[in-house]
Amino acid sequence: MEKRKKSSGNPINIQTSLKKATTELMVLHLLRQKPMYAYQIMADIDRRSGGDIVFNTVYLSIYRLEENGYIREHSKEISADNRTRIYFTITDAGAAYLDELLKGYLRYTAALARVLELE
C-alpha cells in the first residue's frame, strides 16, 4: 500500500489552501464592482495581486455561487475571436453573503495577527 504524502512541510500548501478558502470572497468582491466574465475575473485577480494569486479556472466557484443564488448571468457577448463571453453580476443575496464573508475574514485575520504577534 502506497503511503499518503503529507500536506504539511511545503510552504506552497498554505498558499493553495488560502486561495481555495478565499476564492468566493474575491469573485464576489470583483463582481460587486462590475459585471465580469470568468477569464476577466482571473486576470483581474492576477493583476491586482501582482501575480501572487493565479487561477487556472474559477468556473467551479462561479457555478457554486450561481447555484446558491449569489451571482447570476448578466449578459452574453460574442468576442472578436467568436467566443461567447458570459458576464456575471452579484445578486442582493450575494452582496449580503459577501458582507458576511468579509466580516469573518477580517475577524479571523485580525485574530491570527494577534496570535502571531504581528499587531
Total beta-strand segments:
2
Oligomer: single chain
Strand order of the largest sheet: 1-2
Structure class: alpha+beta
Please state the overall shape, judged from the principal axes of the Cα atoms.
globular
- Which percent band covers the strand fraction? 5-15%
Average pLDDT level: 92
Largest sheet: 2 strands, antiparallel
**Ranges with pLDDT <50 over ≥5 residues?**
none
Counting DSSP H or I runs of 4 or more residues, the number of helices is: 4
Q: Could you characterize the architecture of this molecule?
A:
56% of the residues lie in helices and 13% in strands. It contains 4 helices and 2 strands, in the order αααββα. The protein has a two-stranded antiparallel sheet with strand order 1-2.
Q: Could you write a compact summary of the structure shown?
A:
The protein has helices at 11-33, 38-48, 59-67, 92-115, and strands at 71-78, 84-90.
